Amino acid sequence: MLKGALLVAGTTSDAGKSVVTAGICRWLARQGVRVAPYKAQNMSLNSYVTADGAEIGRAQAMQARAAYVEPSSDMNPILLKPGSDRRSQVVVLGRPLADVDAMEYYELKDRLREIALESLTRLRGAYDVVVCEGAGSPTEINLRKGDIANMGLARAADLPVLVVGDIDRGGVFAALHGTVALLEPADQALISGFVINKFRGALELLQPGLDMIRGATGREVYGVLPWLDGLWLDVEDSLALDNRPASAGLMPYGRQTLRVAVVRVPRVSNFTDLDALASEPGVVVRFITSPAELDDADLVVLPGSRATVSDLAWLRRTGLADALLARAAANRPILGICGGYQMLSRSIHDTVESPDTPDHVPGLGLLPADVVFKPGKTLGRPEGSAYGHPVAAYEIRHGVVTVEGEAEPFLDGCRAGATWGTTWHGALENNAFRRAFLADVAGVAGRDFAPAPDVDFAAERERRLDALGDLVARHMDTGALMRLIEKGAPPDLPVLPPAGV
């Protein structure tokens, strides 16, 4: 039986590390290999709650699903959740440890490295193969000292490294060569080969470049993965929103089309909540940042936020707050999820999440609720019902919401008129509830839209994971990949001349 481990690194953020890792996990799992994903350190505002109440990066939960295994905190032992440009919450083995700036985090590095390596050791003991994902780029040379996610991890655990480059961005060969050349010799010795991602065109036209990069680096290209339309999986950060499709099932704009505008607040979190809406034929989902973009929306969604108070201030500065108040006065649908729900409340008292902002601020006042932030974080997998249908979800929050006034209960939140608020993430992934909610929204908005009766979001996610497994099976040298996992980095890989480091 295949045994070993591998690190998937990338030339940049959003090069495709997460999806390549998921694809390798799905491909191996299909071969009967017990495989687990792993990311030592993840910086992301998209997170997930495991069955035992631990918070991890949502991408690792998606990769665990690709591997047909239950997500665990060992798969992402260190999670950083930015609350501002300078400070992040450090989540260790699924529980918040502290809010730190960059220098304070550096002081934790030795302790965190040991925790990360212990998690990897446990996974390697429990599974045949562990497919590790790097963070950002391994050639962030200013951060190499103390690195625990890329070459620091690879060196400590003796992991062979595949580097993924995004050809759609341009400059992929320079990025691949530079990734190797900027590393010190001991790191270069583990860079075993390359994967080119998001290729569109004739492979024969690319072949001379593949031959040249082999000659220039002495490393193999393990595969060229073609561009795959309609692929949208749980991503790590809002950078990927710039390339996000408007929906998975576009129809001509008309009375049968439901338009959803999602407010892209600066510290947006868990925007993957909206993926299920985009999977519905006839639903167009757009992320917006200005009041004018709300004009034709049938539903406006205020998503989660890691900095509720400061993002609420941003709504006011941009004029979006006034636009939302006008919508509510006109009885036009608004949905707030977690932080978005808190912004819709009457008041927010926060000395925990946004320490550099006023302790007490008025909310938008669209729901009869008040919010107090507590030091302890609520992490759970709640279940309930709405519109007569069962709903399973997850929650990640410091805010405790108290509802006092005239409002209907709604998924641990409330509804007043055409404004809904809930603390639960993932509720829209429940098919029957989603259809009933969208039908209600369409009725209020005066649209003829009718949800498709057969859209199964879980099945759609599985289809996309299978498509990733197919990409690996069809477009990577899987025999060479298996040898790399089992035997490690090839011996005597050439060392490129140092590039001034």
CATH homologous superfamily label of the largest domain: P-loop containing nucleotide triphosphate hydrolases
Q: Count the beta strands.
A: 27
Count of separate structural domains = 2
Strand order of the largest sheet: 15-13-16-18-27-26-25
Give the CATH architecture of the largest domain: 3-Layer(aba) Sandwich
Rg over CA atoms: 23 Å
Describe the structure.
The chain has 501 residues and is α/β, with parallel strands linked by helices. It has 2 domains: 4-232 and 461-487, P-loop containing nucleotide triphosphate hydrolases (Rossmann fold, 3-Layer(aba) Sandwich), CATH 3.40.50.300; 257-449, 3-Layer(aba) Sandwich (Rossmann fold), CATH 3.40.50. Helix content is 32%, strand content 27%. The protein has 14 helices and 27 strands. The strands form 7 sheets. The chain has a 7-stranded mixed sheet with strand order 15-13-16-18-27-26-25. Strands 2-9-1-10-11-12 form a 6-stranded parallel sheet, with helices on both faces. A 4-stranded mixed sheet has the order 3-6-7-8, covered by helices on one side. Helix 1 (17-30) runs parallel beside helix 2 (58-66), helix 1 (17-30) crosses helix 13 and helix 5 (172-181) runs parallel beside helix 7. The longest helix is centred in the N-terminal third of the chain and has 25 residues, at 102-126. The radius of gyration is 23 Å and the shape is globular. The two termini are 41 Å apart. Mean pLDDT is 91; it is low at 245-252. Catalyzes amidations at positions B, D, E, and G on adenosylcobyrinic A,C-diamide. NH(2) groups are provided by glutamine, and one molecule of ATP is hydrogenolyzed for each amidation. Residues 7-231 form the CobQ/CobB/MinD/ParA nucleotide binding domain. One of its GO terms (biological process) is cobalamin biosynthetic process. The active site is at residues 338, 425. It holds the Pfam family CbiA.
